[in-house]
Amino acid sequence: MQQKKTLAEKFLTPAEQQQVTEVVQEVERTTSGEIVPMIVSRSHDYPTAAVSCTVSMVLPLALLLTNLIGERIWIGANNMWLFLALFAGCHALLYPLVKRSDRLNSFFLNHRQAEQEVEKGALSAFYTEQLNKTRDANGILLYISVMEQKVWILGDAGINALIDQVEWDSVVDALTAGIKDGTAADALCVAVRRVGHILQTHFPYQKDDTDELHNLIVR
């Protein structure tokens, strides 16, 4: 049986992934900076969101079943012990399914927590993917967390010393808007080109430059 695709895998079609990869390669011929777009399904498990979602589904179901079953077995439609037993049973059955559903959990996210988790996810990925180990400390991560619909841009020390965060904030805003408008691939390509244009001034292409990092990561 074919394995179900994750949100990250569905974010771009294979053709769009190739398009983004080619744009990264094209842009990196104009700058020594290393640009790495990374797409992840989610940045955290969000157990609280899964619990809230499950409760919102189980509560009316348990009330309905209590009414139906209670009348049939002559213990009444408002029996608290029957309700609690049904609630616990339904919760135990549904919670594992809800926890795996990115779509359902997205409706119950705490947006402040989501912002923090995406930032932490980007920071972790930056070091895991070794963007901190480029020759000129000029690696930059374009981190997209699909379930949260959030983007984070993180540059290495060499970039941060020369380029203000305001420059990246405008790229983040435009890319986020493009994703929400349903033009993710085009928006990501535009973002890569804008990042390359900003880097080009401070990190021009060097003849001995090599492609040190992945051109696109989908995880």
Q: Tell me the fraction of residues in β-strands, as a range.
A: 5-15%
The CATH architecture name of the largest domain reads Roll
Quaternary organisation: single chain
Largest sheet: 4 strands, mixed
Please state the CA-atom Rg, rounded to the nearest Å.
23 Å
Total of helices: 9
What is the CA-CA span between the terminal residues?
A: 21 Å
The overall number of domains is 2
Percentage of helical residues?
55-70%
Structure description:
There is one protein chain. By secondary structure, the protein is α/β, with parallel strands linked by helices. It has 2 domains: 7-44 and 110-218, Roll (Diaminopimelate Epimerase, Chain A, domain 1); 47-106, no CATH class. Helix content is 58%, strand content 10%. It has 9 helices and 4 strands, in the order ααβααααββαααβ. It has helices spanning 7-11, 14-27, 47-72, 80-99, 102-106, 111-128, 157-160, 165-180, 184-202, and strands spanning 34-40, 139-145, 150-155, 217-218. The protein has a 4-stranded mixed sheet with strand order 3-2-1-4, sandwiched between helices. A hairpin with a 4-residue loop joins β2 and β3. α3 packs antiparallel against α4 and α8 (165-180) runs antiparallel to α9 (184-202). It is elongated. The model has no long low-confidence stretch (mean pLDDT 87).
